[in-house]
Design goal:
By secondary structure, the protein is an alpha/beta fold. Helices cover 56% and strands 17% of the residues. It binds erythose-4-phosphate.
Length: 221
């Protein structure tokens, strides 16, 4: 499973990338707005850090405007994947963009029906916002599982991207479900490294080492 970091913060992306585990980056208008920077400049900065798929979202609602906007965003860098919302207008735009070979990420997907429509129109990635499904009492991971199974059954090329991940267990479950990609907030990637037994184990190894070295020194003296 590929691991993307879900942030528009250059500091977070740089740090997560330094750990060697990041395959790509997803942003959305809310994440970019939080940064208070120019959209294109920030996407290009991110492309300089991570050599992998970088998602940048359209903000137009009508296909007629979304298509030229998506073409422009896609032209910024070969790694840019244009995020298209799961709406009828979005799917109309997606059909045109897919035919032009533009890489896309259909966003705000909450059901298998929506995912199927995006896959039929050639989405590169289909982002299932599982955390937001959980927020309203649904089972977001069940949607991820359905998408993985159905895409495989019918040989769709679209990849299932588990999004709106809120905690490390979501990453575990997305991997078990066979999601092709999980996009994970910086804070959750940090949590993925953590285990109390690792800390205790390391502390013990170092204490034993120090003790043995000190004894050796005494024996040699
Ligand atoms: C994915 O591309 C989205 O940016 C993200 O996962 C949304 O997550 P949220 O529901 O925590 O805002």
């Amino acid at each position: 499973m590929k691991l993307f970091v879900d942030t528009a913060s250059v500091a977070e992306i740089r740090e997560a990338h330094s750990w060697g585990v990041i395959d790509g980056v997803t942003t959305n208008p809310s994440l970019v707005a939080k940064e208070g920077v120019d959209f294109k400049t920030r996407i290009l900065e991110i492309c300089d850090i991570v050599d992998g798929p970088i998602s940048a979202e359209t903000v137009q609602l009508r296909a007629e405007e979304m298509v030229p906007e998506a073409r422009e965003i896609a032209a910024w860098h070969p790694n840019v994947h244009v995020k298209i919302p799961m709406t009828r207008e979005g799917m109309k735009a997606l059909k045109v963009l897919s035919a032009e070979g533009i890489k896309t990420n259909v966003t705000l997907v909450f059901s298998l029906n929506q995912a199927l429509l995006a896959a039929k129109n050639g989405a590169t990635f289909v982002s299932v916002f599982l955390g937001r499904v959980d927020d309203i009492g649904g089972d977001g991971m069940a949607v991820v599982r359905q998408c993985v199974d159905v895409f495989e059954n019918y040989g769709f090329d679209s990849q299932v991207l588990a999004a709106s991940i809120r905690h490390p267990l979501h990453v575990v479950q997305a991997a078990e479900a066979g999601a092709h990609i999980s996009t994970v907030p910086y804070k959750v990637i940090k949590q993925m490294f953590e285990h109390p037994l690792t800390d205790i184990g390391l502390e013990r190894f170092l204490a034993d080492w120090e003790k043995a070295m000190a004894e050796l020194k005494v024996a040699k003296a």
